[in-house]
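Q: I have two molecules that I believe assemble together. Could you output structure tokens for the complex as a whole instead of separate predictions?
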Amino acid sequence: MSKPRQLKFGAMVHGVGHGWGEWRHPDAQADASTNFDWYKGQARLAEAAKFDFVFIADSLHIHEKSSPHYLNRFEPLTILSALAATTSKIGLVATVTVSYTEPFQVARQISSLDHISGGRAGWNVVTSWLSGTAENFSKSEHPPHAVRYRIAREHVSAVKGLWDSWEDDAFTHNKQTGEFFDRSKLHALNHAGDFFQVKGPLNIARSRQGQPVLFQAGTSEDGRNFAAEYSDAIFVHAESLEEAQAYYADLKRRAVGFGRNPDDLSILPGIRPIVGRNADEVEQRYQQAVQLVSIEDAIGALGRPFNDHDFSQYPLDAPFPDLGDLGANSQKGGSDRIKQQAREQNLTLRQVALDFSRPRREFVGTPEQVADQIQHWFEHGASDGFIINSLLPDGLKSFTELVIPVLQQRGLQRTDYSGSTLREHFGLAFPVNRHTAVRLSAATKVTDAEQSKVPA
Amino acid sequence: MSKPRQLKFGAMVHGVGHGWGEWRHPDAQADASTNFDWYKGQARLAEAAKFDFVFIADSLHIHEKSSPHYLNRFEPLTILSALAATTSKIGLVATVTVSYTEPFQVARQISSLDHISGGRAGWNVVTSWLSGTAENFSKSEHPPHAVRYRIAREHVSAVKGLWDSWEDDAFTHNKQTGEFFDRSKLHALNHAGDFFQVKGPLNIARSRQGQPVLFQAGTSEDGRNFAAEYSDAIFVHAESLEEAQAYYADLKRRAVGFGRNPDDLSILPGIRPIVGRNADEVEQRYQQAVQLVSIEDAIGALGRPFNDHDFSQYPLDAPFPDLGDLGANSQKGGSDRIKQQAREQNLTLRQVALDFSRPRREFVGTPEQVADQIQHWFEHGASDGFIINSLLPDGLKSFTELVIPVLQQRGLQRTDYSGSTLREHFGLAFPVNRHTAVRLSAATKVTDAEQSKVPA
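A: Yes, here they are, computed for all two components at once.
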């Protein structure tokens, strides 16, 4: 009997939370975003529940109206390196932009995290959507949306090339002969593109998982194609089962179009489950979560996909304003969807804002109800797993302690790790070094040629 | 009775070692440079001996003739973040270049390390001397030596400005009123210079030590002035007591010239002690260390301060070649000294190369002899402490277990930490945030004005 297909789980560890008001919950630690003990505790909860990975989001530009979480928080690669030392199996996924970094530095730091953690690193590739970021990085302007995806392709391709600088068996460490490495297995990259020139080689070996796992979160046309071509996993926000199913089918189809096995691309919607032991507790916890979202905070949060647009200038109960092109050069996929929904359903600004920030009903319920919902999405072409973006201070704790055991009983979630790298958790094959592949293919050709000489 | 002046100690944790051949020692771990357990063990040895800090060196350009240590190693900020999680008191000093980074990213990652570690971060500011680095970072050319120091001044000043984005008491976290922070205590930087434009503010608060501690290693004229103006500590290579004394006096004088208290600038020569329990063991261990340096490796190592110049083209036993300007745009201070010494003492290339790489006799001996030497330098105007750059695989272990207790008995080295931040270990005052200082000074003026109204 073969094992049923397994869910994949990630924990978004988010300090004081994604929303504007979550830090005001009576049990919330207001300093969570720079509290190492808090991060350590969340990562351990996720590892105890045998999650595949913890996920650290990021952004690079703040102003005085930014959400509390953005204002003061750890940088992803440093906090994940610290978490590598306090966990042993769980994957560690860092959000790092391509628009304001150099491939050499990104390749090196993520690979270093990969070595520190014994092969557990992942890179969530983002292009940065707030134009103010340019002003922090000595740039005269923020690159337009389409250019950002051209940058992303070139950046990721250079990083992946650098990660193959050393073949897996390059380091011979022969103390007798003094040969530290085999020179034929070290390769310069010599990348010369439109945006980056990177000679290489990288000054760090391949890790135990060969190359770190790639994540992306694209919803625009450019974003979807980029994700389908390069990503091992996609973090997506889905409004409904139907929307998730459409996205899932579309991305798998695109992956096939790029010559890939669609099973190698995991689609992971971000969800904010609220779990209670019974109907009363569920409703009480849900109302607590709703009350954490004030209309002022919701108006602030709504601005973000529109390049931090100030929505407080419009009347709350009039129809959602006509914004023209606003958002198209920012978070294009997300802002397009908000505009479309407001137009189709004839919503007011207040409705759109609260709908954007308030918790949904989908994954709210008793442990069995939430598990049912998860199983339903998983078995009806909507997801390969989920990224848990907790809303209440004890959200990850209650999900891992109450819902995960139900899913484990159903055989949908592992009860222990079978591998030790993130790639192994995901069931992905070890990527053969490109130079080793050439070597092997040349060797095969020689063998073929040799064989053809043999008389029949 | 006041406590005698205390030594400061740093441990350079260097994987397979600074030299070309150290990995060939029978007890050496050939994979040490990417072995997290090895780094963890070294950091714990240093912390058990109550060292002030561990120090991670760095470089960004390799080629097939680079030293084993450069080829494959951890990136400093990631490995130090991991060490932050496995230590509790010792300082964590990361080498990060100013020539190929943006101030926003450097300020953020070092501050994140500072928060993770509870105020134990330090930044060793380097300008990168290998011209090949440019080719890894999409740059058409490596900036000339003098320009690199102009970049350094502007970069460091922007980073320090970003570190003051938030006043220490900016985060009010008032759950009742919903005030997460006091807007009057958030400050944009608005830096617009010759090399960098950085608006800010930084998206992370000040840490427990206010600002990370600054290190530098300048020996050229530009380097000395930069170090004397900005650094809290200087890592210096000294050939002899007299040279160390001259450097020490010069740097302290320059610090005074910049209006600083010379005690706030620690001069820390890097030394490679070899310790044995008796004269026989000392000689045996010294000879072991000498034998690890082959003439081929010494020739390779010598090239580095000269922009990885290939010295194997010259006859070994002829006088040291005339190199003209070579090295002046690379490691200027170091290469100038080598040329001057070769000329003055009429040395051959073989002599210069072996002298450059072989261990010196100064800090070789029994625990008491090495402690005597350390005390002599410390008490005769040559150093405020030392950075231990171990040569043998058990070098740090034997130094901390054999020499440190002798220094502790003499009252020169702490037997326990009295503070918990690197700044406290160094006895440096907490730096007042520049905006808080303006506020306080304005308040004082108001008070003075108020008082002047009071009739006498």
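A: One point stands out. Chain A touches chain B through 71 residues (CB under 8 Å).
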